[in-house]
Amino acid sequence: MTVAGRGTESVWDYPRPPAVRSARGRLVEVRFAGKLVASTTQAVRVLETSHPPVFYLPPDDVATELLSPADGESVCEWKGRARYWDLKVDSRTAVRAAWSYPHLLPGYRELRGMLAFYPGRVDLCTVDGEAVHAQDGDFYGGWITREITGPFKGGHGTSGW
After folding, report:
1. Where are the domains of the chain?
2. pLDDT, tens only, 101-152
3. The pTM is what?
4. 34 has which bridge partners?
5. DSSP string of 16-36?
6. What is the DSSP letter of 62?
7. Among 64, 97, 155, 159, fewest CB within 10 Å belongs to which?
8. Beta strands of the chain (E only): which ranges?
């Protein structure tokens, strides 16, 4: 997906290194297998050049009992080492549906304990009632809404951006 509507924010205006911005007051929800997995008005967004925002949710607003540690990890040069979480509701499992940073690098400590979800690995993510589109690709977890314009990194042929 190149452009997601009219947009008031271009991902090309976002900074590098990424910035953490409050999304306080916006209703952010995640649903999977017929269950509301997360609902918060206390999220933060991470904004990075060429990427749709990633919403991080406080664990108190997530049904963390549905999460279990997943295999593997990755490293972000800015935030540190990420750990992944499988999401299981009844007989359905979303492998590596969420991630967090147990030990954050300086500059990103406000993400401590927060969880981010891949919108493409759950049934529905919404921001203020608007269904989110998942960022293309298998690695990035950006949330595309009407307020965001691209083009976005993540799809085929964009790895060199």
Report:
1. 9-149
2. 999 999 999 999 999 999 999 999 999 999 999 999 877 899 999 999 999 9
3. 0.93
4. none
5. SS-EEEE-TTS-EEEEETTEE
6. B
7. 159
8. 9-10, 19-22, 28-32, 35-40, 44-48, 51-57, 67-76, 80-89, 92-104, 115-117, 124-127, 130-131, 133-134, 143-144, 148-149
123 burial via Cβ count (<10 Å: 0-12, 13-18, 19+): middle
- In whole angstroms, what is the distance from residue 161 CA to residue 153 CA? 7
Let me know if domain 9-149 sits in CATH 2.30.110.10. no
Maximum distance among all Cα pairs of the chain, rounded to whole angstroms? 42
What the block records as the tokens of 24 is: 């306080």
Tokens representing residue 112 in the block: 């401590």
Beta carbons of 58 and 20 less than 8 angstroms apart = no
Asked if 140 and 159 touch (Cβ cutoff 8 Å), the reply is: no
